[in-house]
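Can't paste images in this forum, so I'm doing it all in text. The chain is below; anyone willing to post the predicted structure tokens underneath?
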Amino acid sequence: MTTTTLTDPTTGAGTVRRGPLRGLTWLMVRQHRATLYSVFGLVALGAAAILYLRGEMTDTLNAAGWPQKELTTPLQTGQRYTYLLLALGSFPVLLGVFVGAPLISSDREQGTAQLVTTQSVPRRRWLIAKLAVGYGIALVAGLVLSALYTSWWKPYREVFPSAWLDATVFDNTGPVLPAFCLFLTAAGITIGVLLRRVMLSMAVTLGFSVFANVVWGQVRESLGTTHLLTYPLNGEPPNVPGRQDLDSWVGTADGTLYGWGTCAEPTDAAQNACLKQHGIVNNVIEYLDYDQMPSMQWIGAGILLAATVVLTVFVVWRVSRRPL
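Text version of the structure:
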């Protein structure tokens, strides 16, 4: 067996790698450098797009005299904004598929995991180094994009084309985006550990990510306590800035609620008779307030991070107990 050592070109003395990237950590970063460069390249493109579109929006609003003057027409953002939102929404999925799924399954499929862990590196130490690289990529990327997008959205939220509860804002600002990046990366790693095959793991991770986004869309609205806004049947609702309506009813004076179309009769006389029969005198709107957004985001991020921890513990247990 031959041994390779790093030597100084002039003295021939062995050299020791200094700094935080050394030993197994340096090996992992070097092994996954193509993934690292690709992800951070995408982050750089996303950051450039956010800064460019923010500058474009700023110029448009300044020309319109906002905020001193109210906008007479909705702010037009164009297709580039739509493409950016699509890219931000897809970014955690890409991390799960291209970072999480192959992270361990590729080494198991190619046999390099068995080779490394039968040498001088303990299996758990190898696994922790792997997870640190995968989670580090996901966390840094998510934090950068979330910080930039949040700094763009917050000053212009009143005129932004997307409401705060929409996935395009709620899931891409604050702590939610990095938490979602970590969760889908952990899901990809877990699927890769279970299936052991790279392409199969990537395909299943993609399907799981789509399913997770659908479920998350249902969870998002339940993260806050809803309020009821009651006003006379023929009156105008009070102005609640940032209100996001979830459902609406008609109701009686004692608070009994009926479906919005309960008295949708073909004639006014029949409609009035129906309203009198049921005692309906109010419109009732169920809504969430903008002030609830920070707490809702942190609760959602906490759920995602807790799921990430559970998946990580399972991966560590599985790899520690089963043969590679």
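Residues 1-16 have pLDDT under 50 and may be disordered. The CA atoms of residues 85 and 168 lie 6 Å apart.
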